[in-house]
Amino acid sequence: MEQNYIARMRQKVGHEGMIFNSAFGVLWNKEHDAILLEKRGDSKVGYGFPGGFLEYGESPMQAVVREFKEETNLNVEVVRLLGMATHVNPKNSWGDAQETISMGFEVRLVEGEDASALKADGDETLAVQFVAVNPRPQMFVPAAQNTLERILTWNEENDQPWLREAAKNED
């Protein structure tokens, strides 16, 4: 199996600080009171949004569609940009310094797709389900919790994307 872009770059630069781009998707249920969230394989607590890092040559929109299929088995299409956030982590769980520029998109199921096809990949995503947004679900890291709050307040009140620079010590 071919290594992903990040693994190939890390082989070249070691633990030096690098900038990576990621994309995630927000899929609402029909009642618009729950969001599809995943229990991640790399975290014991909280939820995450389906998504991941871009591969070289891939657009953020292509990445979120690919990641959604890989992690949830659902075919989605991008509706709109929700926002963009940056996050600096001097030492991630692998011991690497990284800055992540993350773009969030609202997505919808592709015409003819049914949410009954929902299935976690069992590796990166251990479980996937629609989770009610009231009360607020616990996300796996504070940065994701802040992003969820932005989505549920800012994006629900207007159609303009948000920009958020995270604190350097926010995990």
UniProtKB/TrEMBL annotation:
The record's annotation in Gene3D superfamilies points to: Nucleoside Triphosphate Pyrophosphohydrolase
Q: Which PROSITE patterns does this one have?
A: NUDIX (PS51462), NUDIX_BOX (PS00893)
Name all Nudix hydrolase domain ranges.
18-157
Required co-factor(s) are: Mg(2+)
Which positions are tagged coiled coil? none
Q: Is Electron transport found in the keyword set?
A: no
InterPro entries from the UniProt entry: Nudix_hydrolase, NUDIX_hydrolase-like_dom_sf, NUDIX_hydrolase_CS, NUDIX_hydrolase_dom
Q: Does the keyword Zinc-finger apply?
A: no
Keywords of the record, alphabetical order, are: Hydrolase
Q: Which domain of life is it from?
A: Bacteria
Q: Which family does it belong to?
A: Belongs to the Nudix hydrolase family.
State the name under which the record lists this protein.
Answer: NUDIX domain-containing protein
Q: State the species of origin.
A: Fructobacillus papyriferae
